[in-house]
Structures are given as C-alpha cells and as structure tokens.
Amino acid sequence: MKVIKFGGSSLASATQLKKVYKIVVDDPKRKFVVVSAPGKRFAEDVKVTDLLIDCGAKHLLGETATELEQAVLTRYASIADELGLGHEVMERIERDFKELISSDKTNPDRYMDRIKASGEDNNAKLIAAFFRSQGTEAHYVNPQDAGLFVTDEPGSAQVLPESYENLYRLQDRDGIVVFPGFFGYTKDGEISTFSRSGSDITGAIVANGVKAEVYENFTDVDAVYAVNPAIVHKPKEIIELTYREMRELSYAGFSVFHDEALVPAFQAGIPVQIKNTNRPELPGTRVIHRREATNGPVVGIASDGGFCSIYITKYLMNREIGFGRRVLEILEGAGLTYEHMPSGIDDLTIILRENQMDCHTEDTLLDCLKNELSSDEVVIEHKIALVMVVGEAMKHNVGITARAAKALSDAKINIEMINQGSSEVSIMFGVKEESEKKAVRALYNEFFN
Amino acid sequence: MKVIKFGGSSLASATQLKKVYKIVVDDPKRKFVVVSAPGKRFAEDVKVTDLLIDCGAKHLLGETATELEQAVLTRYASIADELGLGHEVMERIERDFKELISSDKTNPDRYMDRIKASGEDNNAKLIAAFFRSQGTEAHYVNPQDAGLFVTDEPGSAQVLPESYENLYRLQDRDGIVVFPGFFGYTKDGEISTFSRSGSDITGAIVANGVKAEVYENFTDVDAVYAVNPAIVHKPKEIIELTYREMRELSYAGFSVFHDEALVPAFQAGIPVQIKNTNRPELPGTRVIHRREATNGPVVGIASDGGFCSIYITKYLMNREIGFGRRVLEILEGAGLTYEHMPSGIDDLTIILRENQMDCHTEDTLLDCLKNELSSDEVVIEHKIALVMVVGEAMKHNVGITARAAKALSDAKINIEMINQGSSEVSIMFGVKEESEKKAVRALYNEFFN
C-alpha cells in the first residue's frame, strides 16, 4: 500500500484534479490520498488557506468578511462546477463553512485553527466526491473518526503516539481513503493544526500508521535539485538521497520540503518519493535510509544566510574546566539557541541565528560573556552565511575538503569557518553573506560540472 | 634591564659556565641571571635534579643513598674545581646539602620539594662565586629574601601576586643578581616548587617583577623550528613569532618550552628571546605580542597524538535546547576535560586527551551519553592525532586552508576533522595517529619548501 500526498498547487483547479485522479488510479496500491487545501493556480493567485486566515481574522475583530467568504466558496464551487459534480457536495461545504464561521470565538487560537483546517477538510470532501463521480470508490475520512489525535497546541500540534495504531485500521476501509492534511483532533475533540508543511506531516503520519511501502509526495517540482535553482541555472536533479542528506540540505535553506515533516515516516523506515503532479512520468527524488549507488561523493550544496558569530578569547581557556559549559549556560539563560561552537585553545566561536538577537539581547549577552567569564575579548560578527557540501559518501573520500576549499579559494572567497568532522555527511563553510552565492556557484561547478 | 635565564645543559660543566659568563658580561643590561640545576653534559648523563629525586626517594624509604649524594656533590665539585673556585663555596654547598638530607621528613612532599630545589639553589651559589672569581660583582639571592612567594602546592606552586612588587626591588641590588629557578617560598617559609619548566617560570616572574625590557631564555637549540626536527630534517628556524602562535604550537607538542611558563612575562608585555648558549651570535627566536613582518602566512606546523573522539548522533539534536550543555556537564561529572567539540545538525564530536580515560571511565561515559541524553548512537574512536597549521597572518589569507587540505589529500591522508574559524591563528586537522608524521611532512613541504 502507498500513501500519496498532493500539495496545494496540485489541487488548485479542475485541470489539476484530473491529473491527480489519473495518478491515483494509475496504481492500485495508491489507497491513501492525503490532500492540502487548493493552492495557487497562477503566480498572483491567493491560496485558499490565506483567504481563510484573513477571513477568520476579520471575524475575530468583529468585522464582516462577506467577500472573503465568497472567494473561498467560489474556489471550491468553480472546481466542482468544472468537474461536473452534483450540487450535493457544494451544499455540504457551504453549510459546514457558514456554521464554522459563526462558531464559538471565545478561544481565538482554536477558532483560527478550525477555520484554517477547513481548507483541507473541504477539499478532501470535494476530491472524494470527484473520484466517485469518475466511478472509483473513494471516501472522505475525518481525522477524528480515524483517530488522529494530537496535543492541544494550536498551530504546532504534535501527534500522539496512539494515533499510529488507530490509523492502522484505515486499511480496513473500502475503496480509496481521502484524508485531509494539516490537522488532527485533541482528546477533547478540538481541531489543532500542525506547524508549516502540515499536510506533509499528516502524510508521514498516515504512512507510518498504515505501514505504507512508500510515501509519495506529489508537488510541483520535478525533483530535489543539487543546488538552489535561484542561484545556479538548471541544476542537476537528485535521484536518490538519504534522510540525513535531506536534513543537512534542508538545514541550510533547501525548501522543497521541511525535513522534520518526514520524521514519522523516517521513524518507520518508509522511503519518501518526491514527484511532480504535472510530470508524473519523471522519476523524481527518492529519500531513503541508506543508499548504495551514488552519483559522486557530493549529493548537493545548500546555503543559508542570517547567522552571526560570537568570538570569545581568553588566555589559558583550555585549562579552565567548565568554560564551554558556562558559555552555553549564559546562552540558555538568554533564551538563545546556538548552531555550532568551534573551539580553539584560547578561544571559541558561537554561531547562532541572527534573528534571535536584538540590540538589547546582544548587549546583555556580550556583557555576560565578557564579565562573568572574565574573557579577554568578545567580538560579534554579523551577516554570516553557512554553505554546506552534503553527501554520505564524502566520509571515505580523501580530498573532498581540499577540492571544496580550493574552489572557494580560486573564487577569492575567504573561509571564516570550517566545520568538518562531526557530521559525517557534510562539510560546512562559514563565509560572509555577500559571498554566499558566489561560494555556492564555485562549489557547484567543482562537484557537478 | 634584561632577565637572562639559562637551562640545565647551559650550566652542565665548567666549559658551559664560561660561555654563560661571557654571554652575561657581554651586555651590561644583563643584570638578572636565573639558573637551572646542572643538566646533562652528554646524552647518557644524568641531570642533577634526577639524582636528587632518586636520593630523596631513598631517604624517604629509610634507605641510605651515599652514592647518589656523592654523585650530586661531585657534579658541583668538579665544576668548582675546574673553574678554580676556592674551597669556600663547595664547603657551603656540602654543609647545606647534608643538613637538607637529614631534615624533617614528616611531610614527604615538602621534603622532596626541598631536595629538588637544592639543585638550582646550590648552582646559583656556585655561579655567583664563579662570576666574582672573574672579577664581576655578582650575588646569589635567595627567593625568600627576594620575596618570591608562592602557594602551598608542592610540585605545582603558583606565584602570589605580591611577589612582583617584592621582586621589583631586586633592581636596587648591587652587581649581578644570580637567582635560582624552579621554586619559591610559601608564606610559612616552606619551599614549594613550580611544575615542569619551573626555571622558565621563575625567569618570567622575575622579568615581570623587575619590568625587564626582554626576557632572554638561553637553551641548547638555535631557535624554535617551524616543525619538529624529529619529523622533518633540518627545518626552517622561526625568527619571530607571537605568544599566541607559540601557544598554539606548544599545544600540539612543540616542546622548546612550555608556553604557560611564559605567562608572567606575557602579562607584562615583555618579549622573550630564545637563544643558544653554544651559539649566542645567532639571532634565535623572538616571542612577541604582535608582529608586522612575516615570512609567509604559516609560521609553524605542530602535531600531537593521544587524542580520542566521541561521536554522538541524535535525530533533531539541534532543536534540543541545552543538549551541548548537558554533554559538557556529563564530561565534567566524569572529571574529564575536553579539547574541542565540533557540532553538526544532528551530531557532535568531543575531542579529548586519551590519557584521561581508562576502560571503566570510558564505559561509564558512553553509557551516560547514550542513556541520559537518549542519543541514537555514541561511538568512540581512539588514536587520533591533531595537526596544527599555525600563523597569525593566515586569517586574511584566502587559500591557506585549500593548500593545506590539498597537501593532505595529495598525500592520501584522510581528514577526520577540521577545526578552523575559532582560532584566528591556526587550522587544526584531525588525522589517524598512523598518518601523523606523513601529514606533518606534507604540510611542511607545502608551506616551507
């Protein structure tokens, strides 16, 4: 059995839904279909979820939102109309939506979560109806009925472990199961949504629950690319990569999807196949636990800006037991998380995301690090980018570091930091943000051209 | 004014003492002479300090040690005799030594410290007498009289801050001050010795106290070499290096002298000149705060074995606030100090000195790291060597890393770890111990040949 999940752009219009139907029925193993809300049909279009958020916000402010409500319903209606579905499904959607809009607003977070979740929920109803209209048995399944229980954290719900056993029973259902992504129910019967990429999370949870042989994730790109296409024109596609490689790439800004969304599938050892709804004949990218074949030691190059570094120096630091631990305690006390902490003999550097820092935090932090630790010098540097060269096969490959460092050197890029050796899967270079793109291009050329 | 310190091999025989005398009187600024105990005259010779340790140990065991005592006294007597010194000085040394041997043994550490310190103390008396015999006013000064006070930690005494003010008054003494290295006095009037390189420490303390313009450290090598001569034949000499470079090199096994011995001079901003007693006309090596001139970005290459690495991996580690801090707490709890802690996204590596670990500590540690932190995997790797490429000018020099990594790659050496970016003064490579020498040679060839 396969779990197949479609993203918003794959479900944005009747044309797209016809492709989706074809894909699903093309393989009888595709029994579990997890769906997003209708996404953008064209670049300037508005996603249904965004319409819903505006709509909910207005109602919470006590305003009317007739136009927004109409816009939401029109999206479903135009799809239903074009697909030639009967009135029944739209009547149900309209009735449910009106009821929802006027529901209890005493807890605004819960109200918003209900409104947001309706985007996926109504789409699942509509898609099930469409499949049936095509002569295929398909049923909308409500997450509460299926037993997808989550913590009571609106907007960042976590799945409860018992859900997997409940979902396992979905196998007994007749026909195709159409399941709305993005949300589950608390034990009190309240809707609670996942964080970003919420439909990806639902797909991974369902895949885990039903013990799927593969979790197919259909989106609007042909594959995961070896490098950001905004930086390198027409980059190579990755046929196969491991979870760890995926995660390292995601960390440094790869956004095909949010790696943590895969955790439930990862835990169950289920491979994830990323494919394009518009070109399902292409192989796409497969994310797996281990891989044998390799198309070179480096699988991809990623980068992300927005880091800063704090450099602390103190003579005889390495003789001072507990120095590193005290530095980390000061960071924790300031509510900051750090990314890396390379250390020398008399110095250490903390790399952290800049968006955690404001002037006040920065001043306080520098003051603590200087005075509480009696440091000789504390220097903060802003606008650092991390560039990652990722590939599981690198570990046993003498010379990858040399090639990478030389490529950067030839491009006249100064390396502020190297982090190699902890992760066996990546080498990380710290460079100034202004050199980020140049660095990525230099490394791509070295390893892929 | 200059403080000039001579090591044991510079003071091992009458021939050596004549060279020393010539060096001292050659520059009227050389007023403060700090001396070690007589060292080896030839490769198989025994240092006076080692004779004294054996001698003290035997007495503590209640045995006699007539031969050892005689050997000690003979060393001084043969020097005194050859230098044509009168009986007076040897009579004093013999009397003092006999008294010392039979002194109170209720505190064995203090007894040993007194015995050990006599090596330097008697040599200072002898050298002062020799200088006077040559017509130069010179006086032995006892550290207690000079106010060199230290903590009550036999074998690892620390200087007390008030000593510097006391020593400042040494300037008022007439003639040349001959000062024994290696020990000071507690406030209770007990002798307490410094750790290894104790005479270097005394020299640095005196230099700080008298505000010397330079601390000249005479030894038996022409200079600090750019690499260990046991690994590379006839390596380049370093004309000038900074304290920080010196310290980075010392850390990785450079043993010209123990960098921490320089701390008192470093704190007072006093340059250290390393010279060869046997070839004083050579420029030697100057250790300074900052340097302008540079003979290339890399000043030296050092290496040291005996490290191990502990690799910890846990999925989503970087989201876990306090993970690094808890790792360091576990290490502290086990009484272990770590050297470096490179971290990836889901993993971190701890580099520590292997000699801290026995099987029991290792098992306990691995167990704690695995279970208390719920890590996915904890792997320890032994026999790691760290190879350091050191030079202050590297920071602004694009391409040093590339050259270093390429040199290692060309020599088919796998880089287990790179640590660059915290220290602005060095790049550190972790390699297997079996590749250590090969790595050092490859890097030396790259940067110096």
UniProtKB/TrEMBL annotation, chains A, B:
Q: Which residues bind ATP?
A: 5-8, 219-220, 225
Query: What are the residue boundaries of the ACT domain, all occurrences included?
Result: 389-449
GO BP annotations of the record are: diaminopimelate biosynthetic process; homoserine biosynthetic process; lysine biosynthetic process via diaminopimelate; threonine biosynthetic process
EC number(s) on file: 2.7.2.4
Write out the residues that bind substrate.
Answer: 49, 120
Q: Which SUPFAM superfamilies match?
A: ACT-like (SSF55021), Carbamate kinase-like (SSF53633)
- GO MF term (any one): ATP binding
Question: What metabolic or biological pathway is this protein involved in?
Answer: Amino-acid biosynthesis; L-lysine biosynthesis via DAP pathway; (S)-tetrahydrodipicolinate from L-aspartate: step 1/4; Amino-acid biosynthesis; L-threonine biosynthesis; L-threonine from L-aspartate: step 1/5; Amino-acid biosynthesis; L-methionine biosynthesis via de novo pathway; L-homoserine from L-aspartate: step 1/3
Q: Which GO terms describe its cellular component?
A: cytosol
| Catalytic activity, reaction form | L-aspartate + ATP = 4-phospho-L-aspartate + ADP
- List, alphabetically, the Gene3D superfamilies matched: Acetylglutamate kinase-like, Aspartokinase, catalytic domain, VC0802-like
Q: What class of enzyme is it?
A: transferase
Q: Which UniProt keywords apply?
A: Amino-acid biosynthesis, ATP-binding, Diaminopimelate biosynthesis, Kinase, Lysine biosynthesis, Nucleotide-binding, Transferase
Using the record for this protein, list the coiled-coil segments as residue ranges, or answer none: none
What family does the database annotate? Belongs to the aspartokinase family.
Please explain the role this protein plays, according to its UniProt record. Catalyzes the phosphorylation of the beta-carboxyl group of aspartic acid with ATP to yield 4-phospho-L-aspartate, which is involved in the branched biosynthetic pathway leading to the biosynthesis of amino acids threonine, isoleucine and methionine.
Descriptive protein name: Aspartokinase
Per the UniProt record, the source organism is Listeria riparia FSL S10-1204
Higher taxonomy: Bacteria, Bacillati, Bacillota, Bacilli, Bacillales
